[in-house]
Amino acid sequence: MALRPARLRPSDLARLGGYGLRSRPLRAVLSALGIAIGIAAMTAVVGISASSRADLDHELAKLGTNLLTVSPGNTMFGTRATLPDDSVAMIKRIGPILSATATGVLNESHVYRTDRIPATQSGGLSVLAAKLDLLQTVGATLDHGAWLNAATDRYPTVVLGAAAAEQLGNVPAVYIGGRWWVVVGVLQKVPLAPELDSAVLMGWPAATTYLGFDGHPTTVYTRSVESQVEAVRAVLAPTANPEAPGDVQVSKPSDALAARRATNATFTALLLGLGAVALLVGGIGVANTMVISVLERRSEIGLRRSLGATKGQIRTQFVAESLLLSLIGGALGALLGYLATGTYATTQTWPTVMPLWVLAGGVGATVLIGAIAGLYPAIRAAHLAPTEALAAT
Amino acid sequence: MIPLETIVTAPDTVAGKPVIELAGVTKTYPGGVTALRSVDLVVDDGELLAIVGPSGSGKSTMLNLIGTLDRPSRGTVRIDGHDVASLSDRELSALRARRIGFVFQQFHLAPGRDALGNVADGLLYYGVPKKERERRAEAALVRVGLGNRLAHRPHQLSGGERQRVAIARAVAGDPALLLADEPTGNLDSASGAGVMELLRELNEAGTTILVITHDREIANGLPRQVPMRDGQVI
Ligand SMILES: Nc1ncnc2c1ncn2[C@@H]1O[C@H](COP(=O)(O)OP(=O)(O)OP(=O)(O)O)[C@@H](O)[C@H]1O
Ligand SMILES: [Mg+2]
């Protein structure tokens, strides 16, 4: 004749787990809050950084990662080098190059709003001669007005970079080299070539005619076939200046955006660590609550043993209670983290991105913490001798 | 659902067959107190008996051994035909769930649960679904005269009513054996008498009942008395 304990149904187990929490709701809420804060911090950190990265990725995809710029470095004697006049034409002959264009800086020329401001007040704007195909190559767009064309690039007309336009205000013309230059257009910000933002751009022929421009390009912008960017990069310097390839600097502006992304990643790792500490503290809070709960509920444990609960069923009850406690905290935390991410991303006009693994990981971590925190108190509860437990009042 | 009969197969409890058999039972607690000395006791099915004796004479110790909440240091305890020494902790739990009901002096009711919930939860380890537990709980509460107090929480009940709820919980699973340790200890004489009356009714309906009491008068009103002193049945 066999004596077998009846199994607890999952629904009964869930009810048992909730029973202890409902009898001390304030304590349950407070200890679940520890877990909630930890999970909320972690999900918000990951969510916000994922949203920011999604925004950067979006920007990079739009701009392209195949932009390489060529500029003169210093000569071996330490003086400023120049690029040969025909370097743009030479670069265009490299097979995988899709487009190449240039700007040339006019160091001696300064920009004024009026013809009365003293020369010292010219304020940080650069004057650049630009080739007509500049916009397509650097991915720049006009905010308003028009870009230079084959007609206007011979006459005193300029296009302003976004920052330059902001600084100069809404002026019909600017004063450069003792002459008025008509403003025909304003650019939007150019993320891949931020040096254009503070520039006043004019046609190559006009710069030569009116300001004595020497015609040396100071920045060559190139686009190449995506898969060949590294190969192009290797030959750009010798192509631009075959006689002194060492005097040429080649850079990849998208690296700067990628670096921003990498900075974000280390920052995220740091905050994630802080979140993990919060979660650990939350877990200790749950363990503490469970230990106290077991001590206080000795007579309940004794009663349940007298009613026929096995050691395993007592253990399971307390583990279930601990799991439920941390799951409530985890769910609350994930919700808070998601809301925080959504709010922050919206204010930054980023897309709200919450990777699924974060939510899954959050729930997983919570279950793990609940199980670990509850196991020791549950084992102690199960090992209480029934008579001893009943003797407690 | 698994039929209950396959979880525990009850032996035929024909009247006259022993439900409790203690033979040479000794209990020495860690620390050296010998609370029971070589006790022999046989209780037949359907009996109603009182265990009486001064404080410290070993009454609760004996009840715990009979209730399989503890094991003897020496001697054999047979409950409902099972030799307790040969059963594992899990098997003893099943035996308690199915065959033994307890009533304690302190009631041990859950403060947050109403009478129906307290009694229904007592069947949690019995192996029936919630609906059935509640049905049985209600029947048990009606049986102890609390059919109109189902939704009352313990603090809304008198001491006597609380002990009735505890008795309802103990008998809801139809145990072969009901063990009550000073069930009237916390009650005034009127509610104590009511509780004893209820136990007599349950006994008449077939349950074997063993009651510990200090009260000579209560003990004398029961069909059999087992007097104890210094850990021995005298
Ligand atoms: N867990 C224990 N550990 C050590 N000694 C114990 C333990 N439980 C009981 N004793 C001792 O065993 C003896 C018998 O105790 P028991 O509780 O069985 O007496 P009782 O007859 O129920 O007394 P009362 O009428 O006061 O309840 C007492 O001397 C007591 O001190
Ligand atoms: Mg006692």
Automatic annotation (TrEMBL), chain A:
Pfam families: FtsX, MacB_PCD. Residues 29-229 form the MacB-like periplasmic core domain. It comes from the Bacteria. GO terms for cellular component: plasma membrane. The keyword Cell cycle does not apply. Residues 274-385 form the ABC3 transporter permease C-terminal domain. It is found in: Cell membrane. It is a multi-pass membrane protein. The keyword Membrane applies. The chain crosses the membrane at residues 28-50, 270-295, 323-344, 356-376. Its main location: membrane. Keywords: Cell membrane, Membrane, Transmembrane, Transmembrane helix. One of its GO terms (molecular function) is transmembrane transporter activity. PANTHER family: ABC TRANSPORTER PERMEASE YTRF, MEMBRANE COMPONENT OF TRANSPORTER-RELATED. Belongs to the ABC-4 integral membrane protein family. This is ABC transporter permease. The lineage of its organism: Bacteria, Bacillati, Actinomycetota, Actinomycetes, Micromonosporales.
TrEMBL record, chain B:
Residues 20-234 form the ABC transporter domain. SUPFAM superfamilies: P-loop containing nucleoside triphosphate hydrolases. Keywords: ATP-binding, Nucleotide-binding, Transport. It comes from the Bacteria. PROSITE patterns: ABC_TRANSPORTER_1, ABC_TRANSPORTER_2. InterPro entries: AAA+_ATPase, ABC_transporter-like_ATP-bd, ABC_transporter-like_CS, ABC_transpr_LolD-like, MacB-like_ATP-bd, P-loop_NTPase. GO terms for cellular component: membrane protein complex; plasma membrane. GO terms for molecular function: ATP binding; ATP hydrolysis activity; transmembrane transporter activity. This is Peptide ABC transporter ATP-binding protein. It comes from Rugosimonospora africana.
